[in-house]
Design goal:
Bound molecules: pyridoxal-5'-phosphate
CATH superfamily of the largest domain: Type I PLP-dependent aspartate aminotransferase-like (Major domain)
Structural class: alpha/beta
Largest sheet: 7 strands, mixed
CATH architecture of the largest domain: 3-Layer(aba) Sandwich
Number of helices: 13
Number of strands: 11
Strand order of the largest sheet: 1-7-6-5-4-2-3
Strand content: 5-15%
Radius of gyration: 22 Å
Helix content: 25-40%
CATH topology of the largest domain: Aspartate Aminotransferase, domain 2
Length: 399
């Protein structure tokens, strides 16, 4: 018996920790080596002219797929579970979002997008999709089944993202999906925060589940990658769209994605724990008005998180009690262990100040004080908290 061999084991019986280590691997198809080799490939040669003419053989061209791309696609498909019919690999999370949207829409269609969606997602809808005759309406992320009143006869897709980028609203995706499906619309979700390890979105009614693989799949802040997982209904259009646009991922980046996947379960478990530890510490601080972390009972979306998710990553937002901007800057500049920078999902901790109220259109986000998004990395939480204490001391010195 060849083992461990991806696809041969009864996947329903395997836990996610096992699936991430076994998924997409077939060592004995590669001389026994544990990892699938990295195929740097464009041209593929045929043995004979007839083979070429008849298109014989499993592969045909680098862009069409290699054992390396198949390994990553299969691994993600196995993690997503039986509801997943196929995976498209894209060169970034944003490419995954735009490709998934293009696969679901055509000229004349109407699209519903959560007001809390990732900023560049909105930009794509407002620019490119508008140019191609697709109109977008932004909706309150908390809308739930009331999405029905925004559905038009030509509404072809509903885009969800939970929790919301920066602002962490939880969405009742199963309720939204039920309404959308009854009207024949496709449901897309940006599932980057939870990943399929903590929410198998395709099992919650989502038809196209998107991830920025740049975040936790990569896990080391050295990779751009996007993935779209599709169900039976959407997979062919997704694959055709990605292929038609010539989108593919470089072999070394796919290999980094595979390498990241193998440790995803243990890293996420640590991000979950450490994130909650630091979030709870923030909740006790007098400087903090509130902490927006769905796994905290104080979060308005906590019940949805408990129902639909099995874990949390290291990303959340804190709202400070009102203070002058220079005090917020003193706090952030007083930190040594938190990088100031966008993106997240790597091994390191990050913090960024933000304000989203200038681009929201369906709802207002006015939390009552300055907002800072934190990513809690894999450092020791005692060290991370001591650093935050120094930041608060620097803040106090300015007031
Ligand atoms: C970062 C991010 C993206 C974009 O991913 P890239 O890989 O940076 O293109 C999309 N959605 C969410 C929720 C993100 O956080």
């Amino acid at each position: 018996m060849n083992r461990p061999e991806s696809g041969k084991l009864a996947q329903a019986d395997l836990k996610l920790e096992t699936l991430v280590t076994v998924g997409g691997r077939n060592p004995h198809a590669h001389h026994g080596y544990v990892n699938t080799p990295v195929y740097h490939a464009s041209t593929l040669l045929y043995q004979t002219a007839e083979d070429y003419l008849r298109g014989r053989g499993r592969y045909s061209y680098g862009r069409r797929g290699t054992p390396t791309s198949e390994a990553l696609e299969t691994a993600i498909q196995e993690i997503e579970g039986p509801a997943c019919a196929g995976v498209a690999l894209l060169p970034s999370g944003l490419a995954a979002i735009s490709t998934a949207l293009l696969s679901a829409l055509k000229s004349g269609d109407h699209l519903l997008v959560s007001d809390s969606a990732y900023g560049p997602t909105r930009k794509f809808c407002d620019s490119t999709l508008t140019r191609f005759g697709v109109s977008t309406t932004y909706y309150d992320p908390l809308i739930g089944k009331d999405i029905a009143r925004l559905m038009r006869p030509n509404t072809a897709a509903v885009f969800c993202e939970a929790p919301g980028s920066l602002t962490f609203e939880m969405q009742d995706i199963p309720a939204i999906a039920e309404v959308a499906h009854a009207r024949g619309a496709v449901v897309l979700a940006d599932n980057t925060w939870a990943s399929p390890l903590y929410c198998r979105a395709l099992e919650k009614g989502v038809d196209l589940s998107i991830q920025s693989g740049t975040k936790y799949i990569g896990g080391h802040s050295d990779l751009m990658l996007g993935t779209v997982s599709a169900n039976q209904k959407t997979v062919q259009r997704l694959k055709d769209t990605a292929y038609g646009m010539g989108l593919c991922v470089g072999p070394d980046d796919m290999n980094l994605g595979l390498r990241g996947l193998r440790t995803l379960a243990v890293r996420l478990a640590r991000h979950h724990q450490s994130g909650l530890t630091v979030a709870k510490w923030f909740e006790q601080r007098p400087e903090v008005l509130k902490v927006l972390h769905p796994a905290l009972p104080s979060h308005p979306g906590h019940a949805i998180w408990k129902r639909d998710y099995t874990g949390a990553c290291g990303l959340f937002t804190i709202v400070l009690k009102p203070i002058p901007e220079k005090a917020v800057m003193a706090f952030l500049n007083g930190l040594s262990l938190y990088g100031i920078g966008a993106s997240w999902g790597g091994f390191e901790s990050l913090a960024i100040p933000f304000d989203v109220d200038d681009y929201r259109t369906a709802t207002k986000f006015q939390p009552g004080g300055p907002s800072i998004r934190f990513h809690i990395g894999l450092e020791d939480t005692g060290d991370l908290i001591a650093d935050l204490e120094r930041g608060f001391a620097a803040m106090a010195a300015v007031r």
